[in-house]
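Suppose a classmate hands you a notebook page containing two proteins, each written out with its sequence and a corresponding row of structure tokens. How would you begin to make sense of it? This section walks through that situation. The first entry is reproduced here exactly as it would appear on such a page.
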Amino acid sequence: MRLRSLALCLALCVGAADAATPSPASPDAAASAQPGTASLPPALADTLFSAGLIGRGEPVAAFDWTLETKRPTRPARRFRERFEGGGPGLAPGLSPVVHETLAPKPRGPRRGISVRGLTVVHPGDTVLDVQVQGLQLPLSPGARFRLDYDEDGASLTQHCVVGATLAASTVHPEMPGSARTIECDGRGRYHGIPVRAGATVLYFERLGVFLEVEQHIDTPVGRLRGSTRVIDFEMARR
């Protein structure tokens, strides 16, 4: 399990497999992630609570969106996510989610528990490979937090600063409410190769989720850029 923003940055740098794709789930994953029955291991729930990602701030809304991610030298990737929203037995910040890859290689729907859109927890996950420090929800201008990533020969530390508010409709006309802009910058190494990674992240206050919309990697061979845009959006009908 990995936070989408940091993993995608490293994937842009080294040409790794799609980092935003959830890890393969067992046949029992769908049953264990049904609304109202999903649960997290206590230790993982405690970690997420201590990080400020769950248990406080806005609940995750019920909505569908389709995203397109562009990456250098690789075809654009499209995927659809259906967030079922918070419910009984779920801490604020968690939502059952169905993820389906549409292109370039379609993959069928898979279920999990989304942590504010940043990562998906599947059965068997017990630890985080990214540590979050200093995050306080609701977000306020000038607030700062830190992300530390360390796994499989890759390490990255990013410092993030919360900025201005913009209308969510500027991202997609159907998106409600406001979005907070967050700028992140940091340094790391991939198997001894020094890198610098920056990202622009949005936090949608009405939806209760984060989305990284731009990222860049400075490497010894130059700067690589990527981006994600919302190409379709719909609030769930109740």
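The notebook's second entry, a different protein, reads as follows.
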Amino acid sequence: MLFRSLALIDKLEKKHISLSIDLGLSPQDIHHLKILFAELQKTVIGVCMLQDASLKFKDKILGFGEAFSCFIMTRLLAKQNRGVFFLDAKNFMLTDDDFGHANPVESSMRTRCAKQMKEAFKNHNFVVTQGFVGATKDKQCTTLGRGGSDYSASLIAKALQAERLEIWK
């Protein structure tokens, strides 16, 4: 199981790095992406060694997908001098610990989100953040379950008192 998992991670890493190279990201960006994949590998090795396939670990592993895509998007926008900032959703999307189907603690989440987003927009034109993920008060990664990215977008729009939310699929 471990070797198969590591082989899948390696395949995924190669695809992300190839995409990043095609997009013209810097060697430093590629190196950072490799560090993120190394963290994923360590997590998977830990899960296999502990034989703990709990929803808590599943959420942590699933959260890496959002980290990879947001990192690539942020670096691509930065390369184009777009004035971009990455804001980790785990810093403001406070949830309960119902791993796999976490529920946002909306009042705290709205306050944190509005404050952090407004601060980020003071000096940046774009803010990139993840959907689908959040964190418990003790910083454990959670996922919001099916439809979690759209749900995250609606929560962020509400926190920012947005006039409109568009979700393109």
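A careful reader of the second entry would note: The first strand starts at residue 84 and ends at 86.
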